[in-house]
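re: ur msg from earlier - yeah i can do the nickel (II) ion complex, just paste it... oh wait u already did. ok heres what im feeding in:
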Amino acid sequence: MAIREVREIGDDILTKPCKPVPKLTIRTRILINDMLDTMYEKSGVGLAAPQVGILKQIVVIDIGDGPLVLINPEVIETSGTQTGEEACISVPGKYGIVTRPNYVKVRARNEDMEEIEIEGEELLARALCHEIDHLSGKLYVNQTEDGLHDAASEEDE
Ligand code: NI
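and the outut:
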């Protein structure tokens, strides 16, 4: 297990689509463990593989209820909306206001490549949308209501 270097906004790899994972190799298992380590190290609630430079459809999420590993995830249902603050480990020191569905259902494979469905509301729905967007090269910074805010200076006020 290891902390991997996090790619930041401006790095082309964050705008590229990711490939599906056909089967789980030792290499992929190591990647998933490293992604979890890196997410916890950076105090994020989620991390997608392209953020550590790997164009594979893998995300990890932990909103405080334990780790969730999603391979080849796709959103299959959404409802409602929520508008709130969103940030990203790849965009350090910033946040923005983004409108997302309030509920999402996601189909994916877990860390044993078993098919699973995850339902999320509120923060989990937001994290699922944000991380799955990374897999098609989308960053929240292009979906904000009024651009990016400086997280540090807001705290100082
Ligand atoms: Ni992100």
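cool cool. The pocket of nickel (II) ion is lined by residues 88-90, 130, 134 (CB under 6 Å). ping me if u need the other ligands too
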